[in-house]
Each structure stands twice: as C-alpha cells, then as structure tokens.
Amino acid sequence: MTDRLPRIGVLGIMQELYDHMIPGITQRQAGYARDIAQRLSGVAECVVGGPVKGREETERAVRAFEDADLDGVLIVMLTYAPSLRAARLFAGMRLPVCLANVQPDPAVTPAWDMDDMTYNQGIHGAQDTANAMVRAGLPFEVVTGEWNDDAFVERVGRWARAARAVTAWKTLKVGVFGYAMNGMGDARVDESALLRRLGPEVVAIAPGELHRTVQELPDSAVEELMAWEDERFDVDPRLSKEERGDHARMQIAIERILARRGIGAYSTHFDAIAEDGRFARLPMASASSLMAKGYGFAGEGDVLAASIVYAGHQLAGDGHFTEMYAMDFPSDSILMSHMGEGNWRVARSDEPIRLIKRPLGIGRLDDPPTLLFRIQPGPATLASLVYLGGERFRLVVAEGEVLDSQELPALEMPYGQFRPDSGVRGCMDAWLRAGGTHHMVMNLGRIAADWAALCTLTGIELVQV
C-alpha cells in the first residue's frame, strides 16, 4: 500500500511585471521548476504546473492538484511575487504545504547583473508568502537550502512522506469489529474530534458481517492462501488442516470486508470475537499478514493505535503494532510484544518466520495459529498517539535500538528488546509524564524527524522522550 512514492504538485509562483523587464524569463524559470522536480524524482513523483502569476491561475493550479489526488504542494518562488495573490487560497488549502526557500544559483558572484538578481530573488517572495500562511493559520513546512544538493532532497523527501501520511489520514476509515475493550482508558477518543482534527473515521463492523463473509468464501481461496503460507513461513506440523483453514478463512474474510468498505485500518477485540459465539478462534495470524500488506491494525478496539500504525506505513513503511511488556534493567531495554499480532515484515532476516500452533487462554477459544518471530536488530522508533481532550492530540516518540538479545523460548508471540536512546529510566519517566499510551507503532530506523514533519503539518504536539 505504500510502495508508491508520494505524489507532489510543484507550484512555481512569479511576478508578471518581470516579463517586460526580461523577455523569456517565464520560460527560463519554468525550466528551473522542472529541474527541481527532476532532482526530487528519487523521493517524490512531482507534477509540475506552469508558472502562476495571478490569483485566479494560482487557485486554479492548486485545485487541479487537489483533483489529481496528490499528497501535497511544494511552493517554489520563481521570482518575488506579492502574497495576497494566494492569501485566500491558503485559508482553504486542503493539501499539506512545503515552502522551498531556494534559488537557481547557490552563490552570489561579481558576474551577476540585474537579470541574475531577478532570477534569484525568491527569498523575499518566500518571506511574504510564509507570512500570509502564518496569518491564515495554515500549518506548513519550510526547507531552505541549495536545491541541487542531497540535504535538500532528503528534507523534501521527509516532508513528502509526511504529506502522504497526513493526506491518507484525511480519508482513512478505521474499522472496529464488535466493540472496544472495556475499561481501557488510554485508547478512548472523541470520534468526532478525531475525524474533524486529523481525518480518520471510525466505522463499526458487526461480527455477523465477518461470519457471513467467512461462510461465503470458496475453498479455492483458502487453499491458495495456505499454499502461499507454506512457501513463506516455517509451518508448525502440529497445525491441523482444519485449524489452518479456519484461520485462513478469517484472514481472507477480514480483508474482503476492509476492501469492500474502503477501510485502511482495523481493530479486533478478543472478547468481541469470543462472545459472539460463532467463531472457533481469534484472528491472530490474520493481523500479522494484513499489517504486512499495509493495513493499520491495533488490538482491543484501539482506533488511535490503528490510526498511528497506518500512518507509520505511509510515513516510513512496515508499521508494526506492539506494546511495552516489561522492563529489563540489566540491558537497559524494554521487552516489546503483544498478544500475538505483529507485522512480520520487521522480522529478523536471519531467522525463519514461524506459523505455530499456540495455546491461548485469552478469549477462551481454540488455539489460534500465530506468526512467531523476533524483531530485526538495529535502529528503531516508537510512536504513540495520545488524545488530550477537545481537539488536542499529542505524539510521543522514542528513538533507540532493537537489541540482538536473548531468545525467550516460552514467549509464543512476536517480540524484541528495545533500548531507548535516553535509557529505560529516562525514557519511561518522560513517556509516562507525557501520557504516552500502552499501544504504539514501531518502525525500523530512526524516523523521529519524519514524525516531527507529520506533527508540523497537522498541529499535533510532539514530545520526544
């Protein structure tokens, strides 16, 4: 679901009076905008509009970007242009914005004439434009630098991924099968506030729809999934064909419901499945493989966590749902796991992913086939979406490292040990003070700066611990 590059519209703004001063300037600066887009081609698919000079054509260009389902708009000042030509546009901007504070030539030289001064005068246009966006209350990112260097490309790429996540959130539906876990307060959210402020819409899915879809599936679809699992995973020989077939039916049925209803993230609660009375086991392996396909997921009806896992997919790829299970003070790390759901794309590359027969008392159902793996050692980042009441949200982020740690033979669910950069004591003190939730997304790599870019575009408060 996140294999594609972010799709970005490049809006080049300039002043029409320079056409009389310097014939051909519009064509020259249009080429400059295309050069920038080409330089960014490794991090974003850029759609370059023609240079805009007045209010009507500026608004028309941005509406075209919105109609083309782009992820964001990169504004480039091709020359100075008065900001009031775009001021009303900023008041109703629907796409995330980045202001590229760049110029064609990196250095001022004695060879410059007045034409060169005009070509390179974008900085004061950027100031005028940024001021208009601030007055309009529009969140936006700024990247100042040499347009042709790697640092500029990296920073714009980070913004573009954040824009993709923010734009995807605006149309995200989060399905909850049954109901959320009773008494779990840190997952509670005003669903209307979530929809208004960030975009995710919560959709209730009756267990009966899952049951009907399971019953309607052809045997061929089940056999196909099981054959794929035989090739991809180390399958426990103790698993019966009935157990595997039952699990496969639930996975296929869940995915069909999500696809049919346009849902990009979901959550299941073990009691909601168990108390229905029509299901033999919990869909543990289903969650792992659907996360691996790019769906957001969280346990226990947690729509906040499901939303942030989905954002993790969009932002950096391979969002992994997890929670902090226990602290290990000798290694200064935290055992990360959950009841059995985890994105197997973050598994260690030097060990097979196992599909196991796994007894589980929670839910009081039959043994659920579960995907078991250890998390790949190396840099990693945790992020927790916190609801603060009203329309206030906070993101608590921790960078650190997944250790090449001990095996835990009795732990029959995905796991790894995460050492925060700030240490267990410092990290947990700050995490708890900030209200960080007990469900979160993990991404491999250090991506706190990516989460910061997302917060800039949404107005979410960022707390890095």
Automatic annotation (TrEMBL):
<dbReference type="InterPro" id="IPR055389">
    <property type="entry name" value="AraA_N"/>
</dbReference>
<keyword id="KW-0479">Metal-binding</keyword>
<dbReference type="GO" id="GO:0005829">
    <property type="term" value="C:cytosol"/>
</dbReference>
<dbReference type="InterPro" id="IPR055390">
    <property type="entry name" value="AraA_central"/>
</dbReference>
<feature type="domain" description="L-arabinose isomerase central">
    <location>
        <begin position="177"/>
        <end position="312"/>
    </location>
</feature>
<dbReference type="GO" id="GO:0046872">
    <property type="term" value="F:metal ion binding"/>
</dbReference>
<keyword id="KW-0413">Isomerase</keyword>
<feature type="domain" description="L-arabinose isomerase N-terminal">
    <location>
        <begin position="45"/>
        <end position="169"/>
    </location>
</feature>
<dbReference type="InterPro" id="IPR004216">
    <property type="entry name" value="Fuc/Ara_isomerase_C"/>
</dbReference>
<dbReference type="Pfam" id="PF11762">
    <property type="entry name" value="Arabinose_Iso_C"/>
</dbReference>
<keyword id="KW-0464">Manganese</keyword>
<keyword id="KW-0054">Arabinose catabolism</keyword>
<dbReference type="GO" id="GO:0008733">
    <property type="term" value="F:L-arabinose isomerase activity"/>
</dbReference>
<dbReference type="Pfam" id="PF24856">
    <property type="entry name" value="AraA_central"/>
</dbReference>
<protein>
    <submittedName>
        <fullName>L-arabinose isomerase</fullName>
    </submittedName>
</protein>
<feature type="domain" description="L-arabinose isomerase C-terminal">
    <location>
        <begin position="319"/>
        <end position="461"/>
    </location>
</feature>
<dbReference type="InterPro" id="IPR003762">
    <property type="entry name" value="Lara_isomerase"/>
</dbReference>
<dbReference type="InterPro" id="IPR009015">
    <property type="entry name" value="Fucose_isomerase_N/cen_sf"/>
</dbReference>
<dbReference type="InterPro" id="IPR038583">
    <property type="entry name" value="AraA_N_sf"/>
</dbReference>
<keyword id="KW-0119">Carbohydrate metabolism</keyword>
<dbReference type="Pfam" id="PF02610">
    <property type="entry name" value="AraA_N"/>
</dbReference>
<dbReference type="GO" id="GO:0019569">
    <property type="term" value="P:L-arabinose catabolic process to D-xylulose 5-phosphate"/>
</dbReference>
<dbReference type="InterPro" id="IPR024664">
    <property type="entry name" value="Ara_Isoase_C"/>
</dbReference>
